[in-house]
Write a structure and sequence with these properties.
The two termini are 20 Å apart. Strand 2, helix 2 and strand 3 form a beta-alpha-beta unit. The chain is globular, with a radius of gyration of 18 Å. The chain has a single domain, classed as LmbE-like (Rossmann fold), CATH 3.40.50.10320. A seven-stranded mixed beta sheet has the order 3-2-1-4-5-7-6, with helices on both faces. The relative contact order is 0.16. The chain is an alpha/beta fold. It binds zinc ion.
Length: 280
């Protein structure tokens, strides 16, 4: 199976789907993490080409840890527009990857780049199958399944968890993905939060930084499990209450749709059933 996660910034696929991407890659599926922008304003001290290069290198390092591939397009961070050229780029990306599953943001999101990423992917959700649109790349004969990444926003509609995937078992890797993105998780996000002075310097060693990172970013990563607990209980019964980290997805109405909840769950077998056993 070919999975593509299309985020706006170089850390979005990792934050919202890093566990799922890692488990799919481990199961032998082809996984591509895409950032539609180059992330060139996501820092308080550096910017432009130097930051774009640093963030691309960090994303590649994370992808290497997770066993998947990463790609950043060269749109300026903060300036993404869901125009026709972007629609063509997204259509070509999905076709070239021969995607079966496409993950992206929802359109009601705080960040304009997330909104327009979502819009561009939705705009591609039918066009990937239309041969005369971007005829230079063969159209897909089967429309992929499109799913939205988790967000906490409620207007005009709250996130609806159609499938909730426990990722506790792969959190060691997920933390390493984020740890590889030092410009974000040890610099920019702590600075935004007014907590930059708390960050242990690299000289304190990797363990000190990782412990700090889990304290700093843990609440953010625990939020999907809290918000989607009811759905998780419906899927797993009492076992749901012991789960701390999940990645949750909402089905997009466009593209292909799985027949039912069982078909949707079977799509995510590499996550629900990482060892290939019979129980979910
Ligand atoms: Zn983002």
């Amino acid at each position: 199976m070919n999975l593509i996660c299309i985020g706006a910034h170089p850390d979005d696929p990792e934050v919202f789907a890093g566990g799922v991407m890692t488990l799919f890659a481990r199961a032998g599926h082809r996984v591509l993490a895409v950032s539609l922008t180059n992330g060139d304003i996501g820092h308080h001290e550096m910017g432009g080409g130097a930051l774009a290069q640093r963030r691309a290198a960090e994303a590649r390092a994370a992808a290497e840890i997770g066993g998947y591939t990463s790609l950043a397009l060269d749109h300026h961070d903060g300036e993404l527009v869901a125009d026709l050229p972007l629609r063509r780029e997204v259509v070509r990306l999905i076709r070239e990857h021969e995607a079966d599953v496409v993950l992206t943001h929802r359109t009601n999101d705080y960040h304009p780049d997330h909104r327009y990423t979502s819009q561009a992917v939705q705009d591609a959700a039918f066009m990937v199958t239309v041969p005369q649109f971007c005829p230079d790349v063969p159209a897909l004969r089967r429309n992929p399944i499109f799913l939205y990444l988790f967000d906490p926003f409620t207007q005009p509609a709250p996130f609806r968890a159609d499938i909730v995937l426990p990722v506790d078992g792969v959190m060691d890797v997920k933390w390493r993905l984020l740890d590889a993105m030092a410009s974000q998780f040890y610099e920019w996000l702590p600075w935004l939060d007014g907590r930059l002075e708390e960050v242990p310097p690299a000289s304190k060693g990797e363990t000190a930084r990782r412990v700090w990172l889990e304290g700093f970013f843990g609440p953010e990563l625990e939020l999907p499990a809290q918000v989607c607990r009811e759905r998780l209980r419906a899927q797993l019964g009492n076992r749901a209450d012991a789960i701390r980290y999940v990645e949750a997805f909402q089905l997009c109405e466009y593209g292909s749709r799985p027949r039912d909840a069982v078909a949707l769950a079977s799509l995510f077998a590499p996550v629900l059933n990482p060892d290939g056993g019979a129980s979910t």
